[in-house]
Amino acid sequence: MTTLTHSSDTLTRDALAVLQPGFQGTTAPDWLLRRIGEGLTSVGLFGRNITSPAQLAALTAQLRAERDDVLVAIDEEGGDVTRLEVRDGSSFPGNYALGSVDDVDLTRAVARELGGRLAACGVNLNWAPSADVNSDVNNPVIGVRSFGADPALVSRHTAAYVEGLQSAGVAACTKHFPGHGDTAVDSHHALPRIDVDFDTLHARELAPFRSAIAAGSKSVMSAHILLSALDPDRPATLSPQIVTGLLREELGFDGLIVTDGIEMQAIASTYGIERGSVLAIAAGVDAICVGGGLADEDTVLRLRDALVAAVREGELPEERLADAAARVRALADWALRVRGASGPGAAVQEGTAPGNGSAGGGTGADIGLVAARRALRVTGTIEPLQEAPYVASFAPVANIAVGDETPWGVAAELAALLPGTETGTYGGENTAAEVLAAAGERRIVAVVRDIHRHAWMTAVLDGILAARPDTAVVEMGVNHAEPAGSPHIATYGAARVCGRAAAEALTGRGA
User: Fold this and answer.
1) Would you name the residues annotated as active-site residues?
2) Given Cys at both, which of 36, 103, 204, 361 links 66, Cβ 3.0 to 4.6 Å?
């Protein structure tokens, strides 16, 4: 192994280069710009940083004024997880809807259009797609973010998504390696454990990642999960056997390896973010994602200094840190070259959705709604609503990845088609009698989300259907429970366009 001798400045620049931090606000704070000048190569964006396409384009231009090749990353899966349209809901259905249609050309086209909108706003790294095989229907964090439960289906759509996104000049970050689908614990809160044998892992969890690598995915995101068959002691993010032995050597991935949020409790509550970051880089990870929860300068300095100290104390080989920083810079160079080859992005107008109109209208700009309509599944016969209904939305607690700031449901879309539509939101403390009283004589549209996971939701819906069997039911989560309602509509996701497609079906006023 080659021994390197870093100057203090080089070591500090390498430590900054491997961080992908977030920040507060819709303009770049001075401390962030200063750190970019000192070597920081990546910045992560979240919903709190975005108010409009024009604002986002101005923000990324501000970052690039400090460093032209800066990687600007975002967690934009489409569907339930959107940052571009965090306040309105996504113009694209998520993976579960695309998997239910099972048209890889459609998936590729959706990813290409989404990538085009990101690129037009100056974003060049997307922490997507989710390649998790959702083999546990009670999974609290993946669910509709997965293409489905069949490894072959997930594999072909993961590859198509990577191809579509990167054809628009945005690097894909396939996640959550080596697979978060068979977990009943959310790694934002605790450390999930998967106890299946090695052969099952290869046939199920790893299959989509092999397809993503073959499709040329520029980066892969590690998961904070313990897979006892691979490493009984450390979560994947911190495991040399998994990150280097499996992903690098056995699967042959040569791109950038990024951690899931290092401040998630699966790491932070067990190792701490400083120790976790050092162990991750030592294991073979190249970049530390941080900023979903900790988004300040102090966090960046703590992680930078922890990495520098680990090298100086002999705990982290300096050539490993240098190699990680080099991989970050190589991806930044790729993104810069792609941006230069494609020319400046289309002008972004204030007040428009990212990319709207830039594709000349028609199928390109509307591809998300086209996909949502194709994903819709109806059980029973729809008698189109003629009068404004009462929409009862049953709201489970949102997982952290999705967040609770993005609106979902069908009420707003129904109100646009049937003015006068009324709505109410209900939780586990409510009863069927309350819903029936609020609805009065109006036709009820009950909107549920993962009803198979919530006994209270099933109990309330059963009470409503017993009294009002003409109630229409719209399932906007994983469609696992037996269909109930007259009719039952499955949207395979809760994106805004999924609500639009359901509203069109309920009223008979769709395309």
Assistant:
1) 188, 260
2) 36
